[in-house]
Design goal:
single chain; alpha+beta; 6-stranded antiparallel sheet; two-stranded parallel sheet; 5 helices; 25% helix; 31% strand
């Protein structure tokens, strides 16, 4: 290491007794550069990863975007799902959440999905499929509006921009399909603003 950077509230070492000032002193004594980033406020609130994670977990995407400076993005390789979207004529691109990655609030989102250099509006569902039998782990399913083609094995980036509703359980596949169509229209309308 030649130069260290930390935040104003950084703590390290035994019982968190290391402070930014102690880090500065250590770096100066060992010929290392050191920058301490001062507190950043937005609307009187400290911009922090803890607060941003809380916003994402609650589905408050517009607020999270203000603190991040961009929409929250998830990315990965499109994998095979359970074929449930195809059964109701609504194929989706499926992304698994790696261990340790924060899973935003379950439900439906207005999003943009990018693959091979092109972006598409997308209706995204995050959850465990309570209507057709719960999945063992949450899954992100993106239905790219206007896209036709095979995405399996391709890289996909998904910018979550608005949480439209929470996850719901439906009484039938027909009721689920009707709501998916309605959600797709909500997403299309969101991008027509």
């Amino acid at each position: 290491a030649a130069h260290l950077v930390c935040g104003h509230d950084f703590r390290f070492g035994y019982r968190g007794q290391g402070t930014p000032e102690r880090l500065r002193e250590y770096c100066a004594a060992h010929g290392l550069g050191c920058d301490v980033i001062p507190e950043v406020l937005l609307d009187g609130r400290t911009v922090s990863s803890t607060y941003i994670r809380t916003l994402l977990a609650e589905g408050r995407m517009e607020e999270a975007e203000r603190y991040l400076g961009h929409a929250h993005v998830l990315s990965g390789t499109v994998r095979h799902g359970y074929g449930r979207g195809e059964k109701i004529d609504m194929p989706t691109a499926n992304l698994a959440f790696p261990k340790g990655v924060l899973v935003p609030a379950f439900g439906v989102y207005a999003a943009e999905a990018e693959t091979e250099g092109r972006r598409w509006p997308a209706s995204v569902n995050i959850g465990v499929h309570p209507t057709v039998g719960a999945l063992p782990a949450p899954l992100l399913e993106a239905n790219l509006i206007g896209f036709a083609g095979d995405l399996y094995g391709k890289e996909l980036a998904v910018w979550l921009q608005a949480h439209l509703r929470g996850e719901m359980r439906f009484e039938s596949a027909a009721a689920l399909r009707a709501r998916v169509l309605y959600d797709r229209q909500l997403v299309a309308d969101y991008y027509q603003k």
